[in-house]
Each structure stands twice: as structure tokens, then as C-alpha cells.
Amino acid sequence: MFRSIRFKLTIWHTLIVFLTFLFVSLIIYQYLERTLLKSFDQTLTNEAGWITARIERYYDRMEDEKNVREDIFEHAAYFPVKEYVEIWDSSKNVFYQSPNLAFEDTLANYSRLRNDQKFYITTVTNFRNHDIRIMVQRAGKSIVFVAMPVENINEPLKQVLNILGWLGPIVVLISLGGGYLLARRSFSKIHQVIDTAKRINADRLYDRIPDQNSKDEIGEIISTFNEMISRLDVSFQQMKQFSADASHELKTPLAVLRSQLENAMHSKSTINDLHDTIARCLDETLRMSNIVDNLLLLAKSDAGQDIIRKHQINLTELVAQTHEESILLASQRSISVSLKNLDNALVVGDGERLRQMLLNLIDNAIKYNNEGGNIEIGLWKENDKAKIVINDNGIGIPSEDIGRIFDRFYRVDKARSRDMGGVGLGLAISKAIVEAHSGFIYVRSTHKKGTEFTVIIPISPV
């Protein structure tokens, strides 16, 4: 439990909320403290100002000292906050002193008023076992001392600290509960992922995690996980189909080999008959070898391994040479092959693999063409790309088969392909070769009218 992410998230959530609460509480306390102190000092200033004005009026009007003392006493008596008042005359004698200061040290003992100052304010500690805030101000020839206990500030601050002290544990408990519920709700979806992952195997790739269309990170994980399962499902289906097709393709030549060899062993064959049997076995062996080589090539491509050796290739010469070879191949079916365009282009790649790719496409155009049909080959240089186009006026490809022609062992016209020795790997290999050269291949076809393959390969910088 204590090692679970849910527990850690709950603790972190609580810690962050509590630290935020402490930070906010500190700001509130300091703000309240400054505000109260400012208000307190303003009260002291107002009191000192009133007393100073009364003393100055006394000097201006030459009033009786007794009247002045009575006014100050009455004012202090009606003032709602306890205060200490002391006034010194120009001779540094006590002119007036509050009754609550009669048996105490005078406030003048705490004065630090310089000759160049008119007033100042400070805090005095341990005055009658408590702290006071004292203000000293000049009033003509006299000096006025006004002080008030700081308890007027401390009491509200203590009450605020008590409130915050009670709120602290409450905030911790609420954040613990809220963090636990939040983590539990979030990780309930994670448990769905875990349960689904435990159930999935090669036979249950149809399982999916229920997606509640949530847009948060958990929803994104679920969507990604479901997409991964879909890709695995497709890959497993392709592997099953690939294994079945490969077994079928290898089964036929193996059966032929076995039949030929058994006949040779149990029959009274002549030397010529044995020679023919060996020749047929050799043909089937070459056929199997070709299938295995192609499968290995595709397996390397799937694994991300290099299937080409890179060096600079004159693509113009390669296309021209392939065109000459294709004329011989197509002549057996009275199909004409023309070279429509031939621009100069250099590419970085494997000449043998590029030749294999071109012959595969041309061979495909011959197989699916009609007797006496036409094939056109062209090479164009467009910006930094070389474009090779091979089109024919053959039987074309049905629209429902266009998306699968590059699949392994997939043949549009299975009867025609098998009769001509095709196994359905040529286009898959061609695509792998083109992609290994950082290019791409696509096809356009109209059923019963013809097919056009286009190969795009980056040109090598000179």
C-alpha cells in the first residue's frame, strides 16, 4: 500500500495543500500585523497631535496650567484605549503625567528624540511586564510622550493564530480525503488497463479498454493502449496469413520434389528420364531458394536492418539498361516496351536492388497485360526527386484490391500469377526497396484499362 502511486499521490497532494495553507496563513498574519500596527500608530499620532495642539494653544493664550491638565485628563479618561501621557516643559520638568504613571519610571527614560527631530515612534519592551508603543513629539517648548499597550495589537493576532491553528488539522484531513478520492478515481482507469493487459494474449487481441471519451492524460493512455492492441492485432493477423501463405508456397515445390524423387527411385527410368527429373527438381529448388531469399529480405526490412548498400548510382543508365532487358522479357507475349522519357539523374543507393525493383514492376506489367499490349517506361527529374513511371494497358486492378497489392503473397489474379510462376512477393519487395532508398511508391489503376506505378526517389546532391 505504502509503495503504491495512489498513496504517494495522496501524501503529495496533502503536503502541497498544507504548505499552501501555511504560506497563505503567513501572508494573512503578516498583512494583518502590518495593518493593525499601522492603525495603532495612526491612533498614537492622532492622540499626540491633539495633545500637542492643546499645549501649543496653552502657550499662545497663556492659559492656566490647571485647565490644560484637566482637559488632557478628561480626554484620556474618555479615550477607549488605555494610554500613558507625559509632558515635559522647556525646563525638563514634568508638566503633566497620567495617574497610571505616578509610581513608575517616566516615559522620558525611554526617549531617544534627537534635537533635530520633531517626533519619532518606537516599541518599548517590559514596561510594567508588557510591551508598549511610544510616540515622542515636540510641542513648541515642550515634549509630549504618548504610549499605549501593544496588547491592543497582539490580542487580535492571537485570535487569528488560534483560528489558523484549528483550521490546519481540518485542512490536512480534508486534503487527505480529497487526495485519496481523486487518486482512487484516477487510478480506477489504470486498473482497467492492467486488467485488460493481463487478459490479452495472441487469441484475445480483440479486447479493448472501455474508453469513456475523457480528454485527460489517463484517457490518452487508454486511447494509445487500444491503438497499440489494434496494431498488434493487425500484425498478428498478417503473421498468421504470412505463415499460411509461405507454408502453402513452399508446400507445392516440396511436394513436386518429393513426387519426382519417388518416381525416380521406384521406376525403371533411363538416363534421359533421370536427367529430366533432376532438371525439374533443380527448378523447384531454385523456386524455393528465391522464395526464402525474398522472405529474408522482407524480414530484414521489417526489423529495420539495412537491405541496401549505398553508393552513387546513375539512375539514367540503370533505367535504360532495364528497358533493354524488358524488351526481351515482353517479346515472348508480343508486348511492346517503349522508353517515354529519360532525364539525367543520380541517386545514392544499391544498383542491384533498384534493378530488382524495376524488373519486378516490369514483370508485373507483363504478367497482367494482354497479348500484343504496350508498356511505357519513363524517368523524369523533378526538383530534388527522380520519378520513375511504368504504365501498361493491361487488365488493370479492381478498386477493392488496390489497397492490398503491396501485401505479401497477395495476388489479384491468382490463377494467372500461379501459371506464370508468381508467388505474390514482387510488389512487397519493390516497396521495401523503394522505402530503403527514402522514397515511396504508389499505384493508379483502372480495371480492364491499365495500371501505372510511380516511384519517387531523392536525387543525390552533386
Helix % is 40-55%
Order of strands, main sheet, comes to 2-1-5-4-3
CATH homologous superfamily of the largest domain, by name?
A: PAS domain
Mean pLDDT: 82
Number of helices: 9
Compute the number of structural domains. Answer: 3
**CATH secondary-structure class of the largest domain:** Alpha Beta
Order of helices and strands: HHEEEEEHHHEHEEHEEHHEE
Low-confidence stretches: none
Rg computed from alpha carbons, rounded to a whole number of angstroms: 50 Å
Kindly state the number of beta strands. Answer: 12
The N- and C-terminal alpha carbons lie at a distance of: 65 Å
The profile of the biggest β sheet is:
5 strands, antiparallel
Proportion of strand residues: 15-25%
Shape: rod-shaped
- Structural classification: alpha+beta
CATH fold assignment of the largest domain: Beta-Lactamase
What does this structure look like?
- With 462 residues, the protein is an alpha+beta fold.
- It contains nine helices and twelve strands.
- α6 packs parallel to α7.
- It is rod-shaped.
- The mean pLDDT is 82.
Write the layout of secondary structure elements.
Blueprint lengths: L4 H57 L3 H14 L5 E5 L5 E4 L21 E9 L2 E10 L2 E8 L1 H49 L17 H50 L4 H32 L8 E4 H17 L4 E7 L3 E4 L1 H17 L6 E9 L2 E8 L21 H6 L6 H11 L3 E7 L3 E9 L4
Parallel strand pairs: 7-9
Antiparallel strand pairs: 1-2, 1-5, 3-4, 4-5, 6-8, 9-10, 10-12, 11-12
Helix pairs in contact: 1-3, 3-4, 4-5, 5-9, 6-7, 7-9
